[in-house]
Structures are given as structure tokens and as C-alpha cells.
Amino acid sequence: VKMLIGEKPLAGKRVLVTAGGTVERIDPVRYITNDSSGKMGFAIAESARDRGAEVTLICGRTDAAPPNGVRVVKVDSAMEMHDAVMKRLPNTDVVVKAAAVADYRPLHRAAHKMKKSNESLTLELVRNPDILQAIGEWKSEAAGRDKPYVIGFAAETTDLEKNAIDKLIRKKCDLIVANDVTESGAGFGTETNIVNVYGALGLIERIPQMTKRAVAERLWELAQSGMNAAKS
Ligand code: CTP
Ligand code: CA
């Protein structure tokens, strides 16, 4: 379905998008991060903007500058991203969690640049909060409140369908966008993506290789019909 010129299917919707990788500091000059470029999240934010939404982009480390016409909130760590997302939930209609959130952070963050000493160094890591799961829990506690529609991502290298559906259920998402990050033309850093979209009833659509912007347009069409179905 082509969008008609002037049609704004997300007009009046407050959309929160997370994009990029988180940065987990070891000391003032060193950190742990991942290969996320932010491109998929940016494409989703741009597409929502063009569909008339009021977009807030919670942005970790990315390769490029974020798009114009959206409110940008820069964050560093998973903990900061967690707080930035959670405090905005009461004023959000749709959440899209495209960010690659580090699962662990260093237990200690050294105040000064660490000096080398021994032949080996062990860095102790501790689990970060799972932001998407926290959103799911917030939703289930939200009796009577307006609940945001939640779109999660799953980056997998094996058992794409099983892992993606497990995440959808565990994190109580409405849709999950699953990426096989080993496929060429998909995943981190690429201009294109290849994804499978799952809902509570299983596979909704296989989106073949296309630009991240085209994937984003299709995701919004699926999300819009999901939101309309929930209303009626
Ligand atoms: N996610 C999150 N907070 C985390 C980890 C992940 O919000 N601490 C979100 C991601 O933004 C993504 C989804 O959860 O939308 C799935 O991320 P992924 O790394 O694929 O799954 P995990 O649940 O972290 O499981 P694992 O890495 O062990 O496969
Ligand atoms: Ca993870």
C-alpha cells in the first residue's frame, strides 16, 4: 500500500525510538560497546516523523548524526538509556527498541585512567537492566493506564524464530523484528536489512532485503494495522 501524499497515519502519536549501541565505561578513556550503527533506529524515527508522529529518539553511540525534525536525547550507558526511556513511558504511545543495549557493564568504573601492571587483567562485568523487559513489566502493572504499543528487536545468529518468539513473550512486546545478523545485507552497519516480523500468533511477515528506510516503512504499516486492530 503506497502512502498517499499528505496522509499522516501517525499524526498525534508520541513515538519513542531507541537507536545505536550503549557505551559501558571502564575508565575515563576506555569502554565496551558493540557494532550497532544506529541506522535502523534512525530510519524508523525518520519514517515515523514523515507519518506525522512526534518523535523522541534516545540515542546511544552511533556512526552518523541523527535525523532532523525529531527530539534527540543522547545517552551513554544502558543504565542512562533505561532511565531516559522509563521516565517517558507515561507520555508515549509507541516504543521502538532498536538500540543494541550492552547486556553487561564493568562492575567498577575507574575514576582515573587505569595503569597496566600484571600480565593478565580480569574485568568483572555485571548484568545491565533489560529495558525492553522493564517496559513489558510496566505495561502489565498499568491497569487502566494507556499502554504503549511496543516493538522490540532480536539480533540472532542461530534459531532465529525460536529465540525471537521467546523474547517477544518474555518481554511482552506487541511485535518483534528479528534479524539474522550473520546474513550478508542484514544487521549491524549495513545499508539494507532482512528481517522477520513476529507477533503473539507467530510469523507476521518476512521482509526481504531492502534499504533500512524501506524496512522501516513496512514496519510502520504492520504496527499501524496492529494498533488499529487493538482499538477495534
Ligand atoms: N534490550 C534491552 N535491554 C537490554 C538488552 C536488550 O532493552 N539490557 C532489548 C534490545 O533493545 C532489543 C531486544 O531487547 O529490542 C532484544 O535484544 P537482544 O540482545 O537480541 O536480546 P537479549 O534479551 O539481550 O538476549 P541475548 O542477547 O542473550 O540473546
Ligand atoms: Ca543482548
From TrEMBL:
It comes from the Bacteria. The keyword Cytoplasm does not apply. Its EC number is 4.1.1.36, 6.3.2.5. Residues 15-232 are annotated as: Phosphopantothenate--cysteine ligase. Its cofactor is FMN; Mg(2+). Residues 10-222 form the DNA/pantothenate metabolism flavoprotein C-terminal domain. CTP binds at D103, K113, P129, D130, I131, L132, F153, K167, K171. GO terms for molecular function: FMN binding; metal ion binding; phosphopantothenate--cysteine ligase activity; phosphopantothenoylcysteine decarboxylase activity. Pathway: Cofactor biosynthesis; coenzyme A biosynthesis; CoA from (R)-pantothenate: step 3/5; Cofactor biosynthesis; coenzyme A biosynthesis; CoA from (R)-pantothenate: step 2/5. GO terms for cellular component: phosphopantothenoylcysteine decarboxylase complex. The keyword Cell division does not apply. It catalyses: (R)-4'-phosphopantothenate + L-cysteine + CTP = N-[(R)-4-phosphopantothenoyl]-L-cysteine + CMP + diphosphate + H(+); N-[(R)-4-phosphopantothenoyl]-L-cysteine + H(+) = (R)-4'-phosphopantetheine + CO2. Keywords: Decarboxylase, Flavoprotein, FMN, Ligase, Lyase, Magnesium, Metal-binding, Multifunctional enzyme. Binds 1 FMN per subunit. Catalyzes two steps in the biosynthesis of coenzyme A. In the first step cysteine is conjugated to 4'-phosphopantothenate to form 4-phosphopantothenoylcysteine, in the latter compound is decarboxylated to form 4'-phosphopantotheine. In the N-terminal section; belongs to the HFCD (homo-oligomeric flavin containing Cys decarboxylase) superfamily. This is Coenzyme A biosynthesis bifunctional protein CoaBC. It comes from Cohnella lupini. The gene is coaBC. The chain holds residues 179 to 410 of 419 of the full protein.
